[in-house]
Every structure is written in structure tokens, then in C-alpha cells.
Amino acid sequence: MVKGIIGKKVGMTQLFDENGKVIPVTVIEAGPCTVVQKKTVESDGYQAVQLGFGEVSAKKVNKAAAGHFKKANVAPKKTLREFRLEDVSGLNVGDVLKADVFAAGDKVDVAGISKGKGYQGVIKRYGQHRLRESHGTGPVARHAGSNGSTSTPSRVFPGKRLPGHMGFVRVTVQNLTVVKVDTENNLIAVKGAIPGTKGTIVTLANSVKA
Predict the structure, then answer these.
(1) Hey, how many other C-beta atoms are within 10 angstroms of the C-beta on 76?
(2) Which residues are the signal sequence here (predicted)?
């Protein structure tokens, strides 16, 4: 069964396995998430559930969202995400999903917004190398070099690697292993790093590779 949940990145720490080996993990506060909407083939053409995570004051919700939550008879939620599932018959509007939807050993894909790094040059942004500094380079050793389009085609092709905004984009890290699930505190420890800073909203779903 395809599973998914919304969470918040808490930070990184380390755990030890039964052999005493250190495992670097990211701790995610996963849920509780409430099913706000249920989509079926008959009504929407596909099967999915919309989950809500995090409480928010009713005063901060616009009229359209307030009507959406009122129809579902669910308290307003700060974050909404949709998960396409193979079978939604076991879920109903108002159901609450917690961290125990996943278990230790599960493979998951974690998606979130990466750290913003501002305006960066081509060396940091794309890993290009510096210019030679033996002679003749001048003060432009870290610059991108010539665009060199000449009279034909007299333009720079789209996709040319140039300096610009880096980071703060949606990133998915695939095939991570769930190391530990703390059902009492709704925490999931995933091996390795995930996108974003502490407090970033992330989604966990079954790995498409596994």
C-alpha cells in the first residue's frame, strides 16, 4: 500500500545500531495529519487523499479555505498536501494519521524546500573551475568566461549556465531508510540528510525506487 504523511524537520542527530555502528539520522516530526479531502475515480478521475498538518487560527484562514475545512468538519490546518494512493477505501475524511504509518526499515522519498543560498556565481552554483591565473586573467578568475556566440547565432542560447539565484527550490531525496519510529512523540528518524532548514515542512511517501 502506498503511504504518505506530512512532517516538520526537527534536526539531525545520530543513533547506534546493534553492532555499535553510528547512523546519522534526520528527525522528522511526522503528523498528526488529518484527512481533509478524499478523491475517488468516480468524482475526480483518480484516487488520492488530502492531508492537513499543523494548527492555525480560524481568523488567519480565507473564506475559500474556511469553507473547505467546514465541509470536511475539520479544524483549519496550516499545511495541506495531496497524496495519490492505490486504494483510498480504508481512509475517510476526519481520520488522523500518525507517525506509525511507517515502520523501521521502510524506504521513503522525502520532499521539501531546500536552503536558499542567494545570488551565487557559476563556481558554487554549477561547480565550474576557475580560470588560469598564470597571466592575462586579470581580476576575473572566478567569472563565467566568454559567452562566445559571435555573429552566428548572435545570441546566448537558453540554458546557458550563468550566475543567479541558488537554492530555495523543491527537492526530493529518494530511497532513504526509516531507522526508528517514536509513536509516542510522533517522530520518525530517517537515515541521511533531507532538504531544508530546521522547521521546514516536508512530505514522506513510499520510495518509488524500492
Answers:
(1) 19
(2) none
Identify the CA nearest to 85 among candidates 201, 171, 5, 177.
5
pLDDT tens digits for 47-77?
A: 999 999 999 998 999 999 999 999 999 999 9
Q: What is the rounded CA–CA span in Å between residue 90 and residue 35?
A: 12
| pLDDT of amino acid 26 | 96
Question: 39, 88 in Cβ contact below 8 A?
Answer: yes
Secondary structure class of 124 (helix, strand, coil): helix
> Cβ–Cβ contacts within 10 Å for residue 114, how many?
17
Q: 116 falls in which pLDDT band (50, 70, 90)? A: very high
- CA distances, 123 to each of 21, 75, 152, 169 (Å): 36, 48, 27, 19
Q: Are 102 and 204 in contact (CB under 8 A)?
A: yes
Measuring CA to CA, which residue among 200, 199, 149 is closest to residue 171? 200
d(CA 54, CA 6): 9
Grade residue 31 by pLDDT with cuts at 50, 70 and 90.
confident
Please give the pLDDT value at position 115.
96
Report how far residue 70's alpha carbon sits from residue 153's, in angstroms, rounded to the nearest whole number: 58
